[in-house]
Specification:
Distance between the termini: 30 Å
Order of helices and strands: EEEEEHEEEHEHEHEEEHEHEEHHHEHEH
Structural class: alpha+beta
Oligomer: single chain
Largest sheet: 5 strands, mixed
Radius of gyration: 21 Å
Shape: flat
Number of domains: 3
Number of strands: 18
Number of helices: 11
CATH class of the largest domain: Alpha Beta
Length: 335
């Protein structure tokens, strides 16, 4: 692929990295993962290829995620990953370096901002513009962010949950919670370890969450058989778990998200609160796909809750729209 110097957008997520090229749409969607040779520190695989090695790699390699809680955790690995992903979609030495719009969490610190900008610049991007993830998600969902009326977005990713009320191209009040999909997966691993004495990987926890996870009791019980390793004997083991078990396992992270939504609603001015009562809450991000989450939020705050179309790609679609209509959206940037 060679898009020369076309402007681009990137959603550098804890779980996945997506890249959008102006005029072409989404051209890359890969896991934010890097496989490294332990002895030399050399990167041997990124993205899908690295993910396929996770949990099955030899002693000589480690599979890591350079992003944690929505921000760069391992600068070297992240830089390499960003360079490799951007290298897949544009020629490094074209005559002009493309503008790059990068979606970042609301609570990003100046050090974390600098890390994102430096990693992108090293990959060959020209001017780098940062946009807050809930703002990008609102644009991607087609919400009228140019209007004075408030719009509320809850973006539940892998590493962070971003809750924001947006009005007139700006985030009026927000909260960035470092609790999201990864935390739910860790909670499931912990529950199965403590209740059943069995070890499972976080990737397996993710599969369980998607298959039988739910935020509220379901009409019909869901159950799956789980194969793993007995921690006492070290032997393979099979157990059965239900949606009620997983709901109990995920209760803390789910409740933390509800509390963050409540806190942002409490911060809102009376006018914005009245707008949200009329417009409801919009959910984006992979975490919004959890069964019954809309119902749980509705029970907790009494407002209508809608899911954005294709929640996994709402942020990158919004950041991509910004590249298509740059001048119109120039007030949304953080830097």
């Amino acid at each position: 692929m060679d898009f020369l110097s076309k402007d681009m957008a990137m959603d550098l997520g804890t779980a996945n990295t997506l890249i959008y090229v102006k005029g072409k749409g989404i051209v890359l969607d890969e896991p934010s993962m890097v496989a490294v040779a332990n002895e030399t520190g050399r990167v041997i695989a990124i993205g899908r290829e690295a993910k396929s090695l996770a949990g099955r790699h030899t002693k000589g390699t480690s599979v890591t995620r350079p992003m944690r809680d929505g921000v760069i955790h391992d600068f070297e690995a992240a830089s390499f990953m960003v360079q490799a992903f951007l290298g897949k979609v544009f020629r490094r030495f074209s005559f002009s370096r493309p503008k790059l719009v990068v979606a970042v969490p609301v609570g990003i610190t100046s050090v974390e901002k600098r890390a994102v900008i430096e990693a992108s610049a090293m990959a060959g991007a020209g001017k780098i513009f940062l946009i807050e993830e809930p703002m990008a998600a609102a644009i991607g969902a087609g919400l009228p962010i140019d209007q004075p009326a408030g719009q509320m977005v809850v973006d539940i990713g892998g590493g962070t949950t971003e809750v924001a009320i947006i009005s007139k191209f700006a985030v009026s009040c927000s909260e960035s919670l470092r609790v999201a999909g990864d935390e739910a997966n860790e909670a499931i691993c912990r529950f199965i370890r403590e209740q059943h004495g069995m070890g499972i990987s976080e990737m397996m926890a993710e599969v369980i969450k998607m298959k039988i996870g739910s935020a509220v009791p379901l009409k019909k019980t869901l159950e799956i058989k789980l194969r793993g390793k007995d921690l006492a004997s070290g032997m393979p083991k099979i157990i059965s778990i239900t949606d009620a078990d997983i709901r109990l396992a995920m209760k803390e992270p789910t409740q933390a998200i509800i509390e963050a939504i409540r806190r942002v609603l409490e911060k809102a001015s009376p006018d914005l609160a009245s707008d949200i009562a009329e417009n409801g809450i919009w959910l984006a991000g992979g975490g919004s796909l959890l069964k019954g989450l809309r119902a749980l939020i509705h029970q907790a705050v009494g407002l209508d809750v809608e899911k954005t179309e294709d929640p996994l790609r709402a942020v990158i679609r919004g950041a991509g729209s910004v590249t298509e209509h740059f001048d119109y959206y120039r007030d949304v940037f953080l830097n």
